[in-house]
What does this fold into?
Amino acid sequence: LFDWRPEPLRGQRQKHERSVIIRNVFSPKEFENNMEKILTHKESIRNQCQNFGHVTKLEIFDLHPDGVMQITFQEVEAADMCVATLNNRLYLGRTLSVTTWDGREKFRVEETKEQREERLKKWDKFLEADK
It folds into this structure.
C-alpha cells in the first residue's frame, strides 16, 4: 500500500535488457567426461563479451540441451552490441544464436536424484584421478 516507485521515463530500457542469452555454445555431453571445458567456455565467451562492455555476471547452464549461457552487462548498449556482433557467428564449429533476454524465460534444468548421484560419482572419479 505504501510502496511508491517512480514511473519509468519514456524510452527508458528495462533492467533485464542488460542480459544476453547465447545458445548453441556447447553440447551438454561435452562435460560428462571433461568438466574443465566448463571453465574453458566461460573464459572464452567472457573474453569475447568484454570487448563490448563490462560483464557483471556470466552464467552457464550446463544441463540445458540448447547449450545456453547468460551474460549480464553493466550497460544496455553493451548488450545490444553483443547481440549485433555475435549473433550467427561461428564458435568452435557451432553457429551461435544470441538474443536479448526477455526477463521471463528460465534456463535452469533440474536433474533427478539418480542423475545427480551419477554426476557426483563421475566427479569423485575425476578428482581421484588427479592425485
